[in-house]
Amino acid sequence: MIEFRNVSFSYENARPVIQGLSFRIEDGESVGLIGANGAGKSTVMKLLLGLVTGEGQILVDDLPVNNANLSVIRRKLGFVLQNSDNQMFMPTVYEDIIFAPLNYGMSREEADRKADAVLEGLGLTDLKYRHNHKISGGEKRMAAIAAILAMEPEAVLMDEPTSALDPYNRRIVINTIRSMKQTRIITSHDLDMILDTCERVILLSDGKVAADGKAEDILNDRALLEANHLELPLSLSGNSRK
């Protein structure tokens, strides 16, 4: 369970980025967090991970997000960065995947088994000993997802997971997200991907919730999206509400 209770945040000497934000995400939900540039999507992720601190209260499994609880909370949350180069920093895919489990106290034997299981489950066994600087962008994105899943998080946060991917690799990432059992929060401008992977959408505008409901209802509402500087998903453009 993830909950924001009347959360506000602003950078120093700047207008508020998040204003009185409240929502609750239940265990196992897949939620798309959408909005135009500057709507506050990335800030929500930073607040949830404790990278910045605002006013109000944020809870993860009833634990307040604060310095005392950060180590526990960050083990519950796996974050897939938009730029995989900022996440995959070890020489090989395998070394990246076992890095977090080893640092969380897992034995080398356990970490090896976890790495093999995750790679096999994602169909990435051929990447195990590949060097990160020698694999494609799509392969690196999948390897980054594998590294997060090896941590066995209770929730997976993803920032623009399909950005800069070709159609083939985009589809692989979408299918992978759909197969996940964890709670998922996905920020993206790729609204077709959000429609494919999320049951629920939270639409942010100027740091506030402009809409919160079923993904198909919100993403099929042309007037709502255009009022918040977004366009209809291409897959819905032929049957949208007026």
Structure description:
This protein has 242 residues and is of the alpha/beta class. It has one domain: P-loop containing nucleotide triphosphate hydrolases (Rossmann fold). The chain has nine helices and ten strands. The strands form two sheets. The protein has a six-stranded mixed β-sheet with strand order 6-7-8-3-9-10, with helices on both faces. A hairpin with a 2-residue loop joins β4 and β5. The two termini are 35 Å apart. The model has no long low-confidence stretch (mean pLDDT 91).
Structural descriptors:
242 residues, alpha/beta, Rossmann fold, six-stranded mixed β-sheet, globular
Averaged pLDDT: 91
Order of helices and strands: EEEHEEHEHHHEHEHEEHH
Total domains, how many? 1
What is the C-alpha radius of gyration, as a whole number of Å?
18 Å
Tell me the β content: 15-25%
> What is the terminal-to-terminal distance?
35 Å
Regions with little confidence, pLDDT below 50 for 5+ residues: none
Kindly name the structural category: alpha/beta
Q: Biggest β-sheet, characterized?
A: 6 strands, mixed
Separate helix tally: 9
What name does the CATH topology carry? Rossmann fold
Q: Any idea what the CATH architecture is?
A: 3-Layer(aba) Sandwich
CATH class placement: Alpha Beta
Counting copies of identical and different chains, the oligomeric state is single chain
User: Helix content range of the residues, please?
Assistant: 25-40%
Spatial shape: globular
- The overall strand count is 10
- Assign the CATH superfamily: P-loop containing nucleotide triphosphate hydrolases
| Main sheet: strand order | 6-7-8-3-9-10
